[in-house]
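ping. complex inputs:
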Amino acid sequence: MKSLILKDLYNIGHNAKSMLFMLLVFAVIFIPVSGTESYIITSGVLCSMMVITTFSFDNTSKWIKYAMITPITKKDLVISKFIVLFIFSAIGAVSGMIIGTIGSLITHKAAITNIESILTLLFVTLVSLVTADIFGSVSIPLLFKFGAERARILSLISFLIPIGICYIIYQLLLYSGVSITDNFIFILICCSPLIAIVWNYVMYKISYGIFSRKELLE
Amino acid sequence: MEAILQVDKLTKQYPGFKLDHVSFSVPKGTIMGLIGENGAGKSTTIHAILDLINKDDGVVTFWGQELSSNPQNIKEDIGVVFDGINFYETLTPAKIENISMKAYKQWDKQIFSSYLKRFQLPSDKEVKTFSRGMKMKLSIAVALSHKPKLLILDEATSGLDPVMRDDILDVFLDFVQDENHAILMSSHITKDLEKIADYITFIHKGKVLFSKPKDELLYHYGIIRCGEAVFHQIDKSAILSYRKRDYQWDVLVADKENARHLYQNTVIDDASIDDIILLYVKGEQVK
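pong. complex structure:
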């Protein structure tokens, strides 16, 4: 497992400078227009998409076939991709928080003057992490099923599925007369790590099901 | 001799291709060459042996155990080299070592370092700066550094120049000096196998045509070069394969000394492994 995570971190580490550059470009675009919060979430989602790049590197080097001749199990390989996704999402969310805070201070978009504003920032970082992780985890079964190139096109689905599910739940709540209050949203955000864990588990099961049946000729 | 790897009736069906009841064994202390034309089933056999594809039928055992029975421990003792390096090209040998040593319990840093030195591979240069030969040497160094007892090589010397191949073949010969070690090596460069293999398994259209000691092939097999009249005199049960070329028949037989005794005025050449493959693949069998 450590071997797989290290391999992905080494591979992606090579792209770290270009990713940092992209985050800075997005900071210039997003912070003045949409605010710090949306930038932090965008940063998390953007970094989570690096998991697609790891599959692309694996595909180029025919790594997955090679990994399966080492003592690494199929289960380890699938779990490692979810751990790597979490690491990328966390890096994105934290980088977003740091760059976003600096950016908002420079552009006077937000003032971090009290505990409440710091808590809000941390809360948005948590939302960024969970959102990025949930969106990214949908792409993993697609990547195992279709490979990096085709899944890159299909990765739009990984954004549409969670949004679609949230929209359906929202409509169902409205239909059943539940009002969406600030308190309700607060509880939802507090529960979001739990939702992300359950969601990741389901995506892991699907991914493992796909990968365990896959023949590794290439 | 005790077999490290035993392949018994291995079968895998694809649309348009069938690996058909492939059987052979790799005894301890030996090198088994797996030969055959492109598409004959060599790589499919290796993939099925390593459980990279699901076999339809047959049994493969390593040291008497199926891979699925104890995969992690068995894989510690198997080193595999495919046709190329399986690490992304921005990695360096040092990083590859860090990755590999976390995958293998038996990883030995000293062995890896000694192979890097022997192959003159810089540990801090990215793989993308390496030549094909250097990449293959690095793959071999990785495969040998977790102290495997069985080495499986799938076209590992293809595309290398003769000097580079010779260096690598020497490493393989060193490896089998330990009589508990063995190598299964698929290659279509039969000269390499003539140099180092102890046994040859020939796969043609998904079937094993023979699995024999190399010396038996080289010392006993022969090709009768004859005209039509002699060809019709030859005992058909002795003909393994034949090919008509203009006015000459090339006839592959398993006992060239006997043929030399029977057909004294006929040219009977030694058969190289290339000749044997060509006659089996392009020639005809007596019905």
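Chain B touches chain A at residues 43-44, 47, 50-54, 71-73, 75-76, 78, 80, 82, 84-91, 95, 98-100, 102-105 (CB under 8 Å).
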